[in-house]
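Aim 2 progress update. The chain analyzed this quarter is reproduced below.
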Amino acid sequence: MPRHQKYNLLEKIVSSINGDGWEVFYLSDPKYHPFRLKVYNATESYNIKIYVWRLTHGGGAARPSDEYRIQITGVEQFEKEIGAKTIILGWWDEGNVFAGFDINKHLGQLGFSPSIQIREAALRKAYIDGFATWTKESKEIAVAFREDFFVEYIKNFETLHSFGESKKDLEILEDIASKPGFINDHLIQKASASRRIAISNISKKVRDNGFKARVLSAYSNKCAFCGLQLKLVDAAHILPVSYEKSTDETCNGIALCALHHRAFDRSLITITEEYKIVHHHKKIEKLVEIKLAGGAEDFVKYLRPYIILPAAINDRPHVENIKQANIIRGWELNF
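Predicted structure tokens:
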């Protein structure tokens, strides 16, 4: 069977999910649209059914010049799937942005040449900020979001599309992307109880993605300990997020591959205030004693002597953050 014309859109969806650290299992043959996937990580999983088309410019004599739309083809009507989240998506090539539409507003038999619209302003805002909304005349809330927000959209999409019912809640939601530093628990508590979790989740994601983007950019997407790229690099906090004085400043971050991130969090390796990489002799000795030190010799051998440093001095790990983090993790007895 020839490659499905929407298969490249499925690839973008899967890449977005994987980029957020989640895995994908195909629940149906990916040659057929709509797509059915299970997305999961160590603690959560969701079954999703996805209708997706490219967003095309819909401007013309009878339409706003800044309108984009999905032209629905091959589907007579949208059908929800029991036990799954059913979503309608558009993909905007120009900005690598998705648009999500409320399936509850589009159930039933579709008319002749059906389409669903969103404005370019929302797409461009999502390209810059990661997330944006657009309220249509019907009060439907269309949600534009960057690839790195895909999983967050899946988790919260039912609530997100309900924000058209409250102007106050919608204003708080819209402020999140453009002014993430001003969103606090006090402001979130002003929202309706049913929408506070979604607002809190999106707010946290905006901050996390901003930190991740800045840190990975500072280190050119390379692990500071080994130089690996391959899209297997995380933005790790030097001072743990759980520590009260931890921040999302770039100088409290370091780019680490999956292996070295886990080793760093488990105090097998760290950096000194001179940016030297050291391993925890005593912990490795204990692993030898319990016969769980396989690969330890090569693990230590292939560590760089010093970390890769960002070009910008202000982006480099702050010495006070390193010092405090090593105290918290008990490193002072190993140096």
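The chain has a mean pLDDT of 85. The chain has two domains: 7-162, 233-333. These observations will guide the mutagenesis experiments scheduled for the next reporting period.
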